[in-house]
Amino acid sequence: MGFIVVAAGFVVFLNVAMYILLRSFWGKQGKKVHRLCLILNLLSIIGIGVGFKPEQAVEVTAVIIQSVTIWLMLQIFLIVLLAAIWLGKFFFTLLANRKATLIFSSTNIGRYVVAVMAAVALGLSLYGSFVERHELHTVEYTVPVEGLGERLEGYRIAQLSDVHLGSFYSLEDFRELLEKTAEERPDVLVVTGDVFDNAGMTMQAARLLDSYSDRFPQGIYYCRGNHEYIRGIPLLEIALQDKRIHNLVNSNVLVLEDSRPLYIAGVDYPMQREQFDYLAEAYTKKAMEGVPDNAVKILLAHHPDFLKNAVEYNAELVLSGHTHGGQLGFEGMPLVPPVFEYLRGWYSQGATRLYVHPGNGSWFPFRLGCQPEIAIFTLRGR
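The line above is the sequence of Metallophosphoesterase; the predicted structure tokens follow.
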């Protein structure tokens, strides 16, 4: 309910911004266009309320939410483009020592500007909705580790995150993702939460993930995200029982013996926000129980804020997700408000490094400047 209220408030903001800009560029004639925008925005609010109902068929949800997304992103891009032009004209007329005429309605220029910018905005909206969010790419990183043993030299770890199985990510999409990941020939696969996001797919998805166990010689390791809690932990536990997937709930596994043995630990997701810091500390402590001090430690945590806890145990690497990298960026830089302290890519604190995966799927079907990825990490001695 809270999400719907926030979304409705955002739609109202877009509607007000569109009204101001249309009047600035189109004068009174912009009223007709704004009425159309108002109607579509009201339908968008209804669509958000109806589309995210859990009992809704995934196909129906996909059509409704995708349509709403295209329209809302079109408005966002159009508002940004028109506001930039408006400011440019304002400062130009100011610097030219002329009266800053902010309304283009004296000629047809304003109408043409709106039409051209609307076409550009629509193109960006369609590209992010139907093209880039499906453009999976592989990124490779080297992780230097002090005193790494011979058996772990060149050890490869693949990470997937935030698949969000459901209306916008099918089981066939998941199979293709696992196949492409296996083709990279990593030693292990780690999955950092928010995979099982549709109760009707959970059993099949668990079987599918388990069927790829032989393709990752040192195993598959998984930690929960918040969406697993939203969809139901009891069903997930049934789905994962008797599977070869290492379900790390505040626990760890010795993966490989070496002069510095490799341990992979995983923490649960603290759903109580007001208790997050306390629970994160307790979960990490339990997850690290029995891990030798000299071990190479990799912590799987859906929420990136666990970096602060991993530092206390001298973990070499923390792999997380949750943020989706903001889903909107430019040249690798996020273009969204800094809601999260760690949003995308690499961070470090002391000797501990954190990688925030941008995600493979999403419940909001749009990506621009933030492609889904397969992340590969290679351990190297230093």
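Note on the example: The chain has two domains: 2-130, 138-381. The first strand starts at residue 137 and ends at 145.
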